[in-house]
Design brief:
The chain has 420 residues and is of the alpha+beta class. The chain folds into 3 domains: 105 residues, no CATH class; 157 residues, no CATH class; 139 residues, Tick-borne Encephalitis virus Glycoprotein, domain 1 (Sandwich), CATH 2.60.98. Helix content is 15%, strand content 42%. The strands form 5 sheets. Strands 5, 6, 7, 8, 9, 10, 11, 24, 25, 26, 27, 28 and 29 form a 13-stranded antiparallel beta sheet that branches. Strands 12, 13, 14, 15, 16, 17, 18, 19, 20, 21, 22 and 23 form a 12-stranded mixed beta sheet that branches. A hairpin with a 4-residue loop joins β25 and β26. α1 runs antiparallel to α2. The longest helix has 36 residues. The chain is rod-shaped.
Length: 420
């Protein structure tokens, strides 16, 4: 083996081991970085094509970096309501201000106070808008992917459209006897009002329900809306509901003094022939009275946004001061045919490459995508114990290569002395 070949081989070892130390250094430095994936040195021997049994020409060693992007990190609890982690395959999708798309395993999302968007490392977290039940409304495609805007629904309120009434009207009440109950209604602005229902027995198995004008729940002396409509009710001989007129039973409220829109309310009084709503049975009392079991309505009082959280499954939920919780977005998960082939950029971000293939978008837990865990973060995959072991090995190899350089230098000096 020539001295120059030995020197070249030793120099390649110094270069390769120094790069290995650099990778170990990065891994140790990021041992506490959320979502960090280790990089390891992959060594490859180099041999000269001129080597033969009669002579040897050294080649040395080359090193390349292997990015362990698909390696799963340990999931740990987080006190942040917007933190999340992927258990399994996939990446969160983010975009910067210029629209460039990146992928990351770092789920430490925060709300950008200036604009209300969920961001990760200063990039916008992407997801799909949903209905209140968490169903994606526009399709799970790249075209419908949008920034998750937590301020999109700062407040909620909805008008009452249905009242479900379960009650027993006393069959032993005298004709023309009346009874009253009260139901709550909400206008389109979320203002609460009350409407009094007067139940009058008009004949055998026949009743009429009439309605007072709406008054504010906060001040019953103030009329808030005009109620029109009455309901004629007929019962079967077994006490079950026979019919209502009109059918379905409805009333209208107009002229809201709150400025709300006019509305029509459907009264769900039960199934014809059934006893699941209104019934007419004897009260078995000297003073018959109505037995009101429940009155439920679907309106919603005004509520302002009080909190945002990411739940298991990737649902972004908004909580309001009226106690309501709505799902407003679903976080998208991107998968790749070869995740380890992604291009690594700063901040724990990755970009598509020809090696990784194109991203495929999924809801969490579907199509091979991992599940999203709320209030969790994925720890770094760097193991300091293993990194120290690798570092010692690289250090010893580096020192040995340096000794080879020193030895070759001495041999060159000997050669030069012989020539002189």
């Amino acid at each position: 083996m020539s001295l120059s070949g030995a020197l070249n081989s030793a120099v390649s070892a110094l270069n390769s081991q120094s790069q290995a130390i650099s990778m170990v250094s990065d891994n140790i430095a990021n041992a506490s970085t959320t979502g960090y994936k280790t990089v390891t040195a992959s060594f490859e021997s180099l041999l000269s094509s001129s080597s033969s049994s009669a002579g040897y020409a050294s080649g040395g060693v080359a090193v390349s970096a292997r990015y362990n992007i698909s390696e799963q990190g340990l999931l740990t609890s987080s006190t942040s309501d917007t933190a999340m982690a992927i258990d399994g395959n996939g990446f969160f999708v983010v975009r910067d201000a210029s629209g460039s798309t990146y992928y990351t395993r770092n789920g430490d999302a925060v709300i950008d106070d200036a604009n209300g968007y969920l961001t990760i490392g200063g990039n916008y977290l992407m997801g799909w808008p949903t209905d209140q039940d968490g169903n994606v409304t526009g399709g799970e495609t790249a075209a419908t992917l949008t920034r998750i805007d937590t301020s999109a629904l700062q407040s909620v309120a909805s008008a009452t459209t249905t009242e479900i009434i379960e009650a027993n009207l006393p069959a032993d009440a005298a004709t023309n006897a009346t009874f009253t109950t009260t139901m709550d209604v909400y206008d389109s602005l979320g203002t609460a009002s009350s409407v009094t229902i007067t139940w009058e027995k008009t004949g055998e198995n026949n009743w009429t329900a009439s309605f007072s004008n709406a008054t504010l729940s906060s001040d019953s002396s103030v009329t808030s809306g005009t109620v029109t409509g009455s309901i004629d009710i007929v019962f079967n001989e077994d006490g079950t509901l026979a019919s209502t007129s009109p059918s379905p039973a409805t009333i209208s409220i107009t002229g809201w003094t709150t400025g709300a829109a006019n509305q029509t309310i459907t009264l769900d009084l039960g199934t014809v022939g059934g006893a699941d709503g209104l019934t007419q049975y004897s009260s078995d009392s000297q003073t018959p009275s109505i037995d009101l079991k429940s009155i439920d309505q679907d309106g919603l009082a005004y509520g302002s946004l009080t909190g945002i959280s990411v739940e298991d499954g990737g649902n972004v939920t908004a909580t309001y001061s009226n106690g309501e919780t709505y799902v407003i977005y679903k976080v998208a998960v991107a998968t790749f045919a070869n995740a380890d082939g992604l291009t690594t950029v700063s901040g724990g971000m990755y970009q598509e490459s020809t090696k990784s293939g194109s991203a495929t978008l999924h809801e969490a837990g579907l199509g091979g995508a991992g599940s999203i865990k709320g209030s969790k973060l994925e720890s770094s995959t760097a193991d300091t114990t293993a990194e120290f072991s690798t570092m010692i090995t690289a250090q010893q190899a580096y020192s040995a290569a340096a000794q080879v350089v020193s030895t070759v230098s001495e041999m060159y000096d000997t050669l030069m002395s012989s020539v002189r």
